[in-house]
């Protein structure tokens, strides 16, 4: 069976511990996520209790240090877990990957007081976090952001807005990039805001093609008073914090794409076996056999690329940033193509919401846009090559 081969290829080269993490995450995805994926999408439910169950398995702060409640796992372990969870619900897993990135930022760049104040409740998912970088006027050009934080005594007065914020309005903690200095990346700092702060408000809930199990809103700051003690790192360090976070975020979102593609290949395999046309199963059609083989091959190639980048990031290698960009570019493009081909193999059934393959297509499409568009990934890779 192809499903047995797919499972084997997904665990090839992993340690026994990593295989166990993968099994736990796959079981959770199959039992706690996949049966509810369509309902969460249709009714736009943010599945808080399910994510808290995932946090009990250590998935709320996967690569956060254990002394503040994290699991202390590697970037490769994290990639394996997010790929597995994404087979159950890509949208929910993608939000969890953003939450994990935020907790890691606080754990890595925060002082001891900040780490102990924020991280334990985030790792348990008692509280949820959102990442606030993109603005209405600055998406790919993040260094030109305009949200300003003026220092007044022991506080910053924050004004501006952020767009397309995953979890916005429903989450508790907001990791916000803002301008405390002059133009360009060196004028950007990072503040941690908490829901309920005066001057913090939210726009309307956006209607999206996919990612419907997580709310998306604008986050608005109107003379919002933020204590200086909520700043991560030094003034001017924000852009560096944001970019380091995004290197991991790109691996995480690529891993979510792998999970969606893996699930879609298995759905296509099952459909080809069951569905008959012209008196025989579609699985007997050589053209469809070849397409299925290509899908599996592209999935394995993308997985190897993502895991290689995850290792480079974990090891702090000099080429980590460009490898993360390559992996995000390749995996999100290839995996969308795999999911789309799986839908095509379903014929008209693939376009019905009764069939999960269409939801994987809708949920995975945005991965080519967020955490840096794939056009920006090409720019990063080309710049690295031409500077070489």
Descriptive report:
This protein is of the alpha+beta class and 388 residues long. The chain has three domains: 5-127, Acyl-CoA dehydrogenase/oxidase, N-terminal domain (Butyryl-Coa Dehydrogenase, subunit A, domain 1, Orthogonal Bundle), CATH 1.10.540.10; 130-235, Butyryl-CoA Dehydrogenase, subunit A, domain 2, CATH 2.40.110; 239-387, Butyryl-CoA Dehydrogenase, subunit A, domain 3 (Up-down Bundle), CATH 1.20.140. Helices cover 52% and strands 14% of the residues. The protein has helices at 2-11, 16-33, 37-43, 48-56, 75-86, 90-109, 112-123, 238-274, 286-314, 320-345, 357-365, 374-387; strands spanning 129-132, 148-152, 155-166, 173-179, 188-194, 200-202, 216-227, 231-232, 276-277, 280-281. The strands form three sheets. It has a four-stranded mixed beta sheet with strand order 1-4-5-8. Strands 2-3-7-6 form a four-stranded antiparallel beta sheet, with no helix packed on it. It has a two-stranded antiparallel ribbon with strand order 9-10. Helix 2 (16-33) runs parallel beside helix 5, helix 6 packs antiparallel against helix 8 (238-274) and helix 8 (238-274) packs antiparallel against helix 11. The chain is globular, with a radius of gyration of 21 Å. The mean pLDDT is 96.
Strand and helix layout:
Layout: H1 2-11, H2 16-33, H3 37-43, H4 48-56, H5 75-86, H6 90-109, H7 112-123, E1 129-132, E2 148-152, E3 155-166, E4 173-179, E5 188-194, E6 200-202, E7 216-227, E8 231-232, H8 238-274, E9 276-277, E10 280-281, H9 286-314, H10 320-345, H11 357-365, H12 374-387
Parallel strand pairs: 1-4
Antiparallel strand pairs: 2-3, 3-7, 4-5, 5-8, 6-7, 9-10
Organism: Geospiza fortis (Medium ground-finch)
Function: Isobutyryl-CoA dehydrogenase which catalyzes the conversion of 2-methylpropanoyl-CoA to (2E)-2-methylpropenoyl-CoA in the valine catabolic pathway. To a lesser extent, also able to catalyze the oxidation of (2S)-2-methylbutanoyl-CoA.
GO molecular function: flavin adenine dinucleotide binding; short-chain 2-methyl fatty acyl-CoA dehydrogenase activity
């Amino acid at each position: 069976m192809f499903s047995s081969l797919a499972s084997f290829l997904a665990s090839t080269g992993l340690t026994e511990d990593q295989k166990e993490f993968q099994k736990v995450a796959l079981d959770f995805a199959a039992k706690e996520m996949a049966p509810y994926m369509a309902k969460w999408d249709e009714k736009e439910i943010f599945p808080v209790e399910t994510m808290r169950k995932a946090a009990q398995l250590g998935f709320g702060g996967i690569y956060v240090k254990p002394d503040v409640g994290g699991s202390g796992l590697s970037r490769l372990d994290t990639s394996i877990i997010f790929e597995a969870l994404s087979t159950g619900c890509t949208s929910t897993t993608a939000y969890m990957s953003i939450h994990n990135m935020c907790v890691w930022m606080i754990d890595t760049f925060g002082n001891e007081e900040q780490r102990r104040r924020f991280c334990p409740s985030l790792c348990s998912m008692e509280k949820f976090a959102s990442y606030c970088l993109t603005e209405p006027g600055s998406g790919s050009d993040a260094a030109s952001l305009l949200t300003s934080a003026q220092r007044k005594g022991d506080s910053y007065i924050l004004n501006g807005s952020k767009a397309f914020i995953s979890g916005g309005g429903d989450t508790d903690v907001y990791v916000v990039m803002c301008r405390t200095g002059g133009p360009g990346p060196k004028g950007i700092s990072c503040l941690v805001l908490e829901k309920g702060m005066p001057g913090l408000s939210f726009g309307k809930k956006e209607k999206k093609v996919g990612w419907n199990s997580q709310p998306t809103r604008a986050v608005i700051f109107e003379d919002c008073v933020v204590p200086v003690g909520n700043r991560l790192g030094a003034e001017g360090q924000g852009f560096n914090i944001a970019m380091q976070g995004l290197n991991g975020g790109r691996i995480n979102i690529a891993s979510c794409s792998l999970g969606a593609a893996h699930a879609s290949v298995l759905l296509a395999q099952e459909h080809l076996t069951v569905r008959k046309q012209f008196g025989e199963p579609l699985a007997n059609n050589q053209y469809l056999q070849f397409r299925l083989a290509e899908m599996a091959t592209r999935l394995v190639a993308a997985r190897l690329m993502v895991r290689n980048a995850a290792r480079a990031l974990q090891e702090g290698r000099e080429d980590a940033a460009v490898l993360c960009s390559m992996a995000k570019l390749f995996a999100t493009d290839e995996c969308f193509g795999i999911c789309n081909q799986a839908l095509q193999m379903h014929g008209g059934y693939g376009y019905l919401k009764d069939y999960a393959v269409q939801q994987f297509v809708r949920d995975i499409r945005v991965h080519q846009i967020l955490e840096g568009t794939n056009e920006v990934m090409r720019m990063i890779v080309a710049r690295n090559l031409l500077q070489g």
